[in-house]
Write a structure and sequence with these properties.
Pfam families: Lactamase_B. This is MBL fold metallo-hydrolase. Residues 15-214 form the Metallo-beta-lactamase domain. By secondary structure, the protein is α/β, with parallel strands linked by helices. The protein has one domain (4-245): Ribonuclease Z/Hydroxyacylglutathione hydrolase-like (Metallo-beta-lactamase, Chain A, 4-Layer Sandwich), CATH 3.60.15.10. 27% of the residues lie in helices and 24% in strands. The chain has helices spanning 37-46, 64-67, 70-77, 88-93, 105-111, 174-177, 192-203, 220-232, 242-245, and strands at residues 4-11, 16-22, 26-29, 56-58, 81-84, 102-103, 128-130, 134-135, 143-147, 156-160, 164-166, 172-173, 179-184, 188-189, 209-211, 218-219. A 6-stranded mixed β-sheet has the order 1-2-3-4-5-7, with helices on one face. A 6-stranded mixed β-sheet has the order 8-9-10-11-15-16. It has a two-stranded antiparallel sheet with strand order 6-14. The N and C termini lie far apart (40 Å).
Length: 252
């Protein structure tokens, strides 16, 4: 059975996206900002799914524009929430640790000081705490959750057997989705080197399309060509160690 992917934008047409994946059962990936609950509910309903029929809610990472309405929707839908253990402290606090962020470029340095990435939301207590790959067949979708750390330590993506990858914020459309189809780094990563390594590892699994939190969708071939350019500008010495990974001036 082919799984249908429905993008539910919660800001603009593509600036902040959540995704409904409909296989034998429906699952929701990401929950937008703290104010996104009603819009996500309406988007799920518009896709022909009763929100109370959601099988599971998956959070890709611990930033408030992705888990902002998760605690609300956990209560309203009754669906269990899955999230990775490495971001658990963030979920329980209801906000991310801004000291971990490595801004990328001028836009990143400016954006990290603005209100949106520093919002606070209701604490989230995940029902399913992930530590590695997790098969979603038991939840009615032919897919699996894979760890893709770097944007945050607990970042995950959802890889469907049919070749779609719901990729969170491993990359974005240019300027946080304003240039919808232009691959770009987000304004910051906790670990920029690891984020691009995770993206390459995910591409090596053979997806054909990436569905991302800000912008997209993007053909995997376009993403690979962009990633190859990123890697050509990566200094050979910049391969490991937190002090080295904090140097981000070379990222485009």
């Amino acid at each position: 059975m082919k799984t249908k992917i429905v993008k539910i934008p919660v800001l603009g047409d593509h600036l902040v996206n959540t995704y409904l994946s409909i296989g034998r059962r429906p699952i929701l990936v990401d929950c937008g900002m703290p104010s996104s609950g009603d819009r996500i509910w309406e988007g799920v309903t518009a896709a022909g799914v009763d929100p109370t029929d959601l099988e599971i809610i998956i959070i890709t990472h611990g930033h408030v524009d992705h888990f902002g309405a998760a605690a609300e929707l956990q209560t309203r839908t009754g669906a269990p929430v899955a999230a990775h253990e490495a971001d658990l402290e963030t979920y329980l606090a209801g906000h991310s640790d801004r000291t971990r962020r490595q801004p990328i470029g001028v836009f990143g340095h400016v954006f990290t000081r603005t209100p949106p990435p520093n919002e606070v939301t209701r604490p989230l207590h995940p029902d399913l705490i992930l530590s590695g790959d997790y098969e979603l067949e038991r939840h009615g979708v032919e897919a699996r959750i894979i760890p893709t750390p770097g944007h945050t330590p607990g970042s995950v993506s959802v890889l469907l057997d049919q070749g779609d990858l719901i990729a969170g914020d491993m990359l974005t459309g240019g300027f946080l989705g304003l240039l919808q189809y232009r691959p770009s780094n987000p304004p910051f990563h906790d670990d920029p080197v690891q984020a691009l390594d995770s993206l390459q590892a995910a591409l090596n699994l053979g997806p054909h399309t990436l569905h991302i939190g800000h912008g997209g969708p993007m053909p995997a071939g376009d993403v690979q060509r962009w990633l190859d350019r990123q890697n050509r500008h990566r200094p050979i010495s910049l391969t490991s160690g937190p002090a080295e990974r904090g140097r981000t001036a070379w990222w485009r």
